[in-house]
Amino acid sequence: MVLARSRQAKERLVPCVSSGNYEQVRTPISAIVEYDRGCFELLPRLYPHSDGRGRWRANFLLNIGYGDRDRLRPRLPRLAFDEVARWG
């Protein structure tokens, strides 16, 4: 994932989108999302309590927000930001 927030980064995106999306690119942050076909190999690291590699089918999942603190489970391992994203 590449996160573009500077004006220069946004201007580099404009030629890549259709004319109907020019204004959307000018939002505060634009995310360019791609996926790694081998990402399932990281599941044992991210879910050490179960392998999980055989049950995942989605290639894109983005969750933004806050959970109900009373229902949150203990935090599982996470990848470092620079392993999965960079600012463009």
List keywords for this structure.
88 residues; alpha+beta; 4 helices; 3 strands
Give structural notes.
The chain has 88 residues and is an alpha+beta fold. The chain has one domain. The chain has four helices and three strands; from the N terminus they run βααβααβ. The protein has a three-stranded mixed sheet with strand order 2-1-3. The N and C termini lie close together (10 Å). The model has no long low-confidence stretch (mean pLDDT 78).
List the helices and strands and how they pair.
Blueprint lengths: L1 E3 L2 H7 L8 H4 L4 E3 L10 H4 L34 H4 L1 E2 L1
Parallel strand pairs: 1-3
Antiparallel strand pairs: 1-2
Helix and strand content put the structural class at alpha+beta
Shape: elongated
Domain unit count:
1
The helical percent reads 10-25%
**Count of strand segments:** 3
- Weakly predicted, low-confidence segments: none
SS element count, helices:
4
Question: What is the H/E order?
Answer: EHHEHHE
Radius of gyration, CA atoms, in whole angstroms: 17 Å
- Cα(first) to Cα(last) distance is 10 Å
In percent terms, what proportion of residues is strand?
5-15%
- The quaternary organization reads as single chain
Give the overall average pLDDT. 78
Reported for the largest beta sheet, the result is: 3 strands, mixed
* Strand order, sheet with most strands: 2-1-3
